[in-house]
Amino acid sequence: MSEFFDVVVVGAGNAALCAALAARERGKSVLVLERAPQPAQGGNSFFTGGLFRMTYEGIDDMCAAFPELGGDGVDQYELDAYDSGDFYADMLRVTDFRTDPDLADVLTETARETVEWMHTKKVRLTWLLGVHAVLVEGKYRFWGNTPVCVSGGGQGLVEVLLKTALAEGVEIRYGARAVQLLGAPGGKVEGVLVQSGDGHREEVLAGGVVLAAGGFQANTEMRARYLGKNWDLAKVRGTEYNTGDGIMMALDFGAQPYGHFSGCHAVAWDAGAGQTGDRVVTDSYSRHSYPISVVVNREGRRFMDEGADFQTYTYAKYGAEILAQPGQSAFQLFDQQVEKWIRGDYRIRQATKLTANTIEELAVKMEVDPKALVATVDEYNAAVKDGPYDPNVLDGKSTVGLTPPKSNWALRLEEPPFIAFPVTTGITFTFGGVRINADAQVISQDGDPIVGLYAAGEMVGGLFYNNYPSGSGLTAGAVFGRRAGYGAASMTRTPE
């Protein structure tokens, strides 16, 4: 006889656990199926920095809603208001106006209330000091509209959500891989077929099913097929278990493919990192201080505008730029003028780092032609215009007559010792997936909701194209995960 649960959730990251918690609020029995073994739990969420993009009126508003943000030193912080219209405008701008307007509207209008709901589930926040604000003239001015993250980062987020889910009666099974949706494709979903590590398969029936099993970023074949040349060579920032299972199950059941299948979130990543996520280092292999650096490829040439915008609006697309370079790698160059502002992630003992007292010596260590690198640095230095420099604002301190330009934060690279950080491409998640509506119901190829089937998280298509505003992924996972959980809990079915 098959088991029955009111709601079955596939996946155990941020989106999945929000769905499970929402369904439990409705008094439903909930089973979470996690493909990974327990020591590798948490999906991609575990490897994130834990940033959540949401709306706010300023420092006082944030401290009132999330009391843990208050305390000594807050009078040094400066934060401009950020409303749902600003958030929506950012979604439009960074996706080249391709984002699904209905999904973007739900995301931007309900982000704040969703994070406040998570706060009732014991999730706590902390300021991103030294990350999205540095100390200048006695003040921390937050930029990029993501001033906070979850305490403990992605690891802390997963630990709290798992602990709360278990305390509220959610059942979690590890090493349980959902391989097929039950029911007639295109009709009502009746449950899932689950395979354990020893190959045993069993049916789990359900009133509603939530798919939150991530994208296909850890599947090299799918990356090459959908993303294109050399994407099979990219390193995976997160879990090795996000291989597209949820997406393929949904498509096999008649779900509508949707979104940017040839696009993804990919960043500058330490060249010495492993092929998949490190559960000790997690997000600290990220190399996000490039706006205050000069970035060159293996030929010693610049190839990107390091200062085009705040890092929060460019970092997710620059991984693709690095992948297109010789050897799928590059170098971020710093001098002592900006060394104090380099993020703490660069200072971990696992960081790959080269130093030298001259550009020629640095080039030798980089295994780059010294003449080429010196010529690049000289050309760059000559193009830097004078003016005030401030890493907390779009300062307009740019280059003149240089291709590509550096639009902000251009300082001459001239104060030794010089530092080079070798970087490659780290893929975070893929943008293509299944179509959902505002209630997180999966849409069929005929355009109608598939009864009993919901989706959330990275496997939802249509939100992000080419680029991504920082923190919006975790927020979207929580927003639509919560809606999916409520929706799945509303489905009624009598256990057989």
Short description:
This protein is α/β, with parallel strands linked by helices and 496 residues long. The mean pLDDT is 97. It is built from eleven helices and 21 strands.
What report would you give on this structure?
By secondary structure, this protein is α/β, with parallel strands linked by helices. The chain is built from eleven helices and 21 strands. The strands form five sheets. Strands 1, 2, 8, 9, 10, 11, 20 and 21 form an eight-stranded mixed sheet that branches. Strands 12, 14, 15, 16, 17 and 18 form a six-stranded mixed sheet that branches. Strands 3-6-5 form a three-stranded mixed sheet, with no helix packed on it. It starts with a strand and ends in a 7-residue tail after the last helix. The relative contact order is 0.20. The mean pLDDT is about 95.
Evaluate the radius of gyration: 23 Å
CATH first level of the largest domain: which class? Alpha Beta
Distance separating the two termini = 8 Å
Total number of beta strands: 21
User: How many independent structural domains?
Assistant: 2
Q: If you average the pLDDT, what whole number results?
A: 97
Q: What do we call the CATH topology of the largest domain?
A: FAD/NAD(P)-binding domain
Overall helicity: 25-40%
Shape: globular
Largest sheet composition:
8 strands, mixed
CATH fourth-tier homologous superfamily of the largest domain: FAD/NAD(P)-binding domain
Which CATH-level-2 architecture of the largest domain? 3-Layer(bba) Sandwich
- The class by helix and strand makeup works out as alpha/beta
Helix count, DSSP H or I runs of 4 or more residues: 11
Low-confidence stretches: none
Provide the β-strand percentage band: 15-25%
